[in-house]
Amino acid sequence: RHVSSKLLAPLASEAARQSVMSWAHLDVFPAPPQSVADAAVNVVSHAAYFLGRGRPLQERWEKEVLYSPEQVETVQAKQLIQTLADNDVLLDATLTIFDRAAKRTQAPYYVNVDRAGIHFTRAAHRAGIAIVAGTDQAISADDPMPPVHDEMTLLVERAGLAPVEAIQAATFNG
Fold first, then answer.
1. pTM (2 decimals)?
2. How far does the chain reach from its first CA to its final CA, in angstroms?
3. CB contact set of 55 (below 8 Å; sequence gap of 6+)
4. What is the DSSP string of the chain?
5. What is the C-alpha to C-alpha distance for residues 102 and 113, in angstroms, rounded to an integer?
6. Rounded to an integer, what distance in angstroms lies between the CA atom of residue 29 and that of residue 66?
């Protein structure tokens, strides 16, 4: 969970040498998201973490809703998206976990990460990054459908994918 920037690239490189796919959270503190993208892992999860999760940001987000769509338009975010695209990294957006938490709690932190994940996924999709429909949600006996159905709906209704692209995200891409 905690991996330094110096260790990420050798880990991804060794995985590739052994023909093993590598996966990481977009932010594996203390390594920032750009280091994860630079390491060229095969898949990154949690689009919401594109700004990183350092303590100062998390503390501010826990107090009030501060995320704005312009944050995905910064030079830093655009560079991150470009690096992910250049390295053919798949984005496992995992929108469902934050959407459900934001709706359930209305807590500022979850509202912020929900919005951030949606906007980053939309921008990544526009840049040609393949999206994977992961949820980070356990299947509950109370759920009428597996959470991947919610993820596909969010990909279409909030992140801008076409329905066929959401189906590809849940099948072919992943």
1. 0.92
2. 22
3. none
4. ----HHHHHHHHHHHHHTT---EEES-BTTB-HHHHHHTT-SEEE-GGGGG---HHHHHHHHHS----GGGGGSHHHHHHHHHHHHTT-EEE--HHHHHHHHHHH--HHHHHHHHHHHHHHHHHHHTTPPEE--------TT-SS-HHHHHHHHHHHTT---HHHHHHHHTT--
5. 8
6. 21
In 3D space, the residue among 170, 116, 121, 118 whose CA is nearest the CA of residue 147 turns out to be 170
- In the block, tokens 């994977």 appear at 132
| Per-position pLDDT tens, the chain of length 174 | 578 888 999 999 999 999 999 999 998 878 889 999 999 999 999 999 998 876 677 788 888 888 999 999 999 999 999 999 999 999 999 999 999 999 999 999 999 999 999 999 999 999 999 999 987 777 777 877 788 999 999 999 999 999 999 999 999 997
Residues 2, 29: Cα–Cα separation, whole Å: 5
> Tokens for 83?
């690096």
- Bridge partners, residue 90, by sequence: 43
